From TrEMBL:
It holds the Pfam family Phage_GPD. This is Phage late control D family protein. It comes from Novosphingobium sediminicola. It comes from the Bacteria.
């Protein structure tokens, strides 16, 4: 019977494979994958007792895959691609001498952060994202449920394309990320990828891990959201609302009723998700887990088991030839 054995593939952008070179020096690796537009973070610790280790310099691009080389239970064997990372920082310390390499998602750098000024009128989310992607020589992948969403007017005032895409994600209650030379726009909690492939919901039980924490918070008495817009026909400022009861009023004044309604609906969904949080340390990592994936929890209280959950972030740690994970969930 084969023993559990974790594996990784780490390559430079020129194709040089680093995994074998670092294997005798490997101490630990931590990967944090996030959902809401923030860069994924990679930390790699290596021993350097002989002082002979040559490490990637800041700015170099690494590609990473993680998974299991051999297992005896239900997890499939094979490495899962985790994308490209740009080395941000290299730290040396001792004794004992070691080197820590810190890197972030490669696509959240460069010209994406350049501030720009631009105004759009009468377009769609899909067309706007495609234009931004083309400017950077990458691909736009906008989910079919969102691609045709109208944008009556949008001003990019001294704002980077990266920040603008994140703002659009908030406006449409969508996951908006730059990854693997693509801009990805997906509905939060969606069950298919932008290309139409099914995203399976996973089930986790008490037997899958150990430490866990559940938080249920009532964010005040406001159970609705209001948004104001300028009515072109009457010249008056009007209000739309989503939810019931006392409402939180958004500060921005929108250009149309449809824009205001969309913003109120998105903000309400975000507020409802934020009420429920769950953290779980898994005994064995599943590298197929990814942010925005649906999760069912079984074996806990009714409040936990009856909640629909989404993965907010995944933290995977590799050490001593094993993989562990901590998943953060929020109510869907």
């Amino acid at each position: 019977m084969a023993a559990n054995k974790a594996g990784l593939r780490l390559k430079l952008e020129n194709g040089t494979d680093l995994a074998d070179k670092i294997d005798p020096r490997f101490l630990s690796l931590t990967l944090v994958e996030k959902r809401d537009g923030s860069a994924d973070e990679l930390t790699l610790s290596l021993q350097n007792a002989d002082g002979k280790l040559a490490v990637p310099s800041a700015g170099q691009i690494l590609s990473l895959a993680l998974g299991w080389e051999s297992r005896f239970d239900a997890f499939p064997v094979g490495l899962v691609d985790k994308g490209r990372f740009r080395v941000d920082e290299v730290e040396e310390s001792g004794p004992p001498d070691q080197i820590v390499i810190r890197a972030r998602s490669a696509d959240l750098a460069g010209t994406y952060a350049k501030r720009r000024n631009r105004v759009w009128h009468d377009t769609t989310l899909g067309a706007l994202i495609s234009e931004i992607a083309a400017r950077h020589g990458i691909t736009a992948r906008v989910h079919p449920d969102l691609a045709a969403q109208p944008i009556e007017a949008l001003e990019q005032h001294n704002k980077s394309d990266m920040a603008l895409v994140q703002d659009l994600g908030k406006r449409f209650d969508a996951v908006a990320t730059w990854k693997d030379r693509k801009i990805l726009i997906l509905p939060k909690g969606g069950t298919t990828t932008a290309g139409g492939k099914s995203i399976p919901t996973i089930t986790l039980t008490r037997q899958d891990g150990w430490n866990w924490r559940f938080i249920r918070a009532e964010r005040g008495g406001q159970k609705g959201v209001e948004a104001q817009y300028h009515d072109g026909a009457s010249g008056a400022r009007k209000t739309v609302s989503q939810g019931a009861g006392d409402a939180y009023r958004l500060k921005h004044i929108y250009a149309s009723k449809s824009s205001a309604t969309r913003a109120a609906k998105s903000n309400l969904a975000k507020r409802l998700r934020a009420k429920s949080k769950f953290e779980y340390y898994l005994a064995v990592a599943d590298c197929r887990l990814r942010p925005n994936q649906g999760v069912t929890l079984k074996g806990w209280s009714k409040a936990v088991s009856d909640t629909k959950w989404l993965i907010e972030s995944v933290e995977t740690t590799m050490a001593d030839k094993g993989l562990r994970q901590m998943v953060r969930l929020e109510g869907a």
